[in-house]
Amino acid sequence: MRWLLILITFTLSMHCRASVKLDGFMNLGIHTTDSKFAGLRTQVSQDHATFEGDIDLRQLSSFGLQAEWQFSNEIQFVSQLLLKDTANNSILDKVKMAFLRYTPAPEYMLSVGRMSLDLYMMTDYRDIGFAYVPTNLPVEFYGIIPHESLDGIEFTYKKNSDRGLLSVKGFYGQSDSPVVSDDNFIWDVKLRNMAGLTLSWEANDWLIRAHHSITKAKDGYPGQNELVTALRLIPVSVWPSIEAVRESLLFENAKLTYTTIGTRFDNGEYILRSELSWVDSKSILLNDLLTGYASIGKRFADHALMLTYSHIEADAPNIAPPLISTPELNFLYAAVKQATDFYRLRQDTYSLSWRYDMSDSWALKAQYNYTSIQYQPSGLYLHDFGNNSDDAFSSISLSSHWIFDL
User: Of 55, 130, 355, 368, which has the fewest beta carbons less than 10 angstroms from its beta carbon?
Assistant: First the structure.
């Protein structure tokens, strides 16, 4: 964090030598649901959820302010302050972007600092609700990975030709973000040695994109060492099934890979958009996570309608309980199940979205979601264990979105 403070302070001290452009966005949204057991949230980094009877005003609301300092034709500093609902409350965690950009030629760009983490097709504007039709992006795809910013370096090469625009982007750095689960469990997931490569091709009304990245988890989840140490003391004769998976419960230094492909078509009237991703690690805690969505929409003058189908699935090991029951063994079994079942996921969501453009900078939206879920509890939600699990539930959201220049 110290380097980020130095970078921001240096830029502010040089403001008299640069032209400054200020702009921003604001999202105001409410949503409600009929889900009694699964509390809805839009990202796993959020520490509160919406249940039946609640009218939530936080999860879909946010405010962003972006400043661009132009020092010369080649050097620019970009910063963005983003206020939205997450478990991160420090002011530095609200700085989503703060980086120096060097453009020696139109084809080349080098950025150093904190940038948007380029995992998705809509990375650059995922928080700007005015930029798309739905009230919020598919939770199954955009909500399961909490990391949004990269502290490091990024290089971009672009080549324009008669066949279209080819873009190659590579990055290296680190990223931190919390993952929140039931019982106020918060895991600050620190990813290190993060390297990624993105290839995209854009021509006429089409965009095709592919991305692959690798990283390592710096630390494990809170209590992992104590849990595994306690499991090592249990005789195999008492709990035979735990021996095969005990050591893989450790997440520290676990290697993770993320691969995604996506495509978009937008001719001003019809919109097609789809992304598919696969996440894997060497730990049983996160194994073969598959997510994706497909959207089709149409614009009618100032109105737009969109249908979206989104899916997520990941299996977790079925670990048999100990052969005998004691309070201590039951506690350890519950702890193992909580760790392994967070990414036991399988659900489908069908969404109908409507948008109305009030002006060139103001849009109103409404959305209905129907979700069918196979595994509960699920890492996507927070839960009310006083109710029975829901096999399916609905949610409705209303929102208003603005963009502005200062």
Answer: 55
